[in-house]
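ugh ok so i messed up the first submission bc i forgot one of the chains. this is the corrected input, ALL of the components this time, i swear. 294 residues overall. if the numbers dont match what u have on ur side tell me asap before i send this to the collaborators (the ones from the other lab, u know who)
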Amino acid sequence: MDYKEEIKVFSSFLKRRGLKHTDQREEILKAFLSEEKHLTADDLYLLVMKKNPAIGHATVYRTLKLLCGANLASEIYLKDNRVCYEHKYGHRAHEHMVCVHCGKTIELRIPEIESLVKKVEKEHGFKLNDYALKLSGICAKCGKDTK
Amino acid sequence: MDYKEEIKVFSSFLKRRGLKHTDQREEILKAFLSEEKHLTADDLYLLVMKKNPAIGHATVYRTLKLLCGANLASEIYLKDNRVCYEHKYGHRAHEHMVCVHCGKTIELRIPEIESLVKKVEKEHGFKLNDYALKLSGICAKCGKDTK
DNA sequence: ATGATATTGATAATCAATATCAAGTAGGGG
DNA sequence: CCCCTACTTGATATTGATTATCAATATCAT
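and heres the new structure output, hopefully the right one now
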């Protein structure tokens, strides 16, 4: 995969902001896209390290913020104050199910939510940016293991 | 208010766990209940300080964990990795709307969610502990201010 | 190519939350 | 009612994730 599409989105975001397109940023973006599951900043750092050990910790953190700004990634906040990042481009999954036992996160698709959320938005005069539904509990696998 | 009910719940929780009912714990619980809005651990610490400056930071943190265990409080995870605590006893609001501008949090009541969540739970063989719906955007007031 | 400006990586700094530990209590059994 | 043991406390040190700092370097419009 070449991620041409996403790289273009990122590039134009950077240009629009007067920022620069660097090798590090592109490498980090590619590594991020290559992993389908959710990543913490540190997970991504380790992934990037394998390709290019010269890239620093801070750069990964910084680039993740940029990716969020470019709407290529979004942050999700899990238990224990951990932050994960997920792909956003071409996605619109804001519903997650997290297993409090093994930590696995499943993305859900609950179309009915959208209309509910819209209704609430109108009722409260809120201008919605985003929403997130998070279910937490014990996943099927862990439920079996602990039985 | 005497919070008799909640104190009893806490007491029996402690006994059940072989833990002790101390003045500090009760004071912290009362302070927590006295404030209707969401609190960070530090907010609560400052509140408790006013009544009893001798109570330490760590004790507040520890007691909040206990309150969660006793189902009197629950944690909510906001942007920037901040954790807040909200009342849980007699509550069942898991729906929040957070203004990304002023930071205000509004508790919602969306009864339809419950059945949606139940459906998903069944579909995935998940054993649900909790769920949280978080809407984020600009609240009516801030929307007006920035117009 | 040049130069203004953004970027990088190493390091130090920050912050909330947690672990440690000696001294102080609670509260059940006698 | 007192003892004893185990739980608690508060001060402090520690952790771990994220950010700030800063000199050296790279980008890109011209």
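quick check: Chain B touches chain A at residues 75, 77-79, 81, 83, 97, 99-100, 106, 108, 110, 112-113, 116-117, 120-121, 124-140, 143 (CB under 8 Å). that seems consistent at least. The helical segments of chain B are 4-16, 23-34, 41-51, 57-69, 111-124, 140-145.
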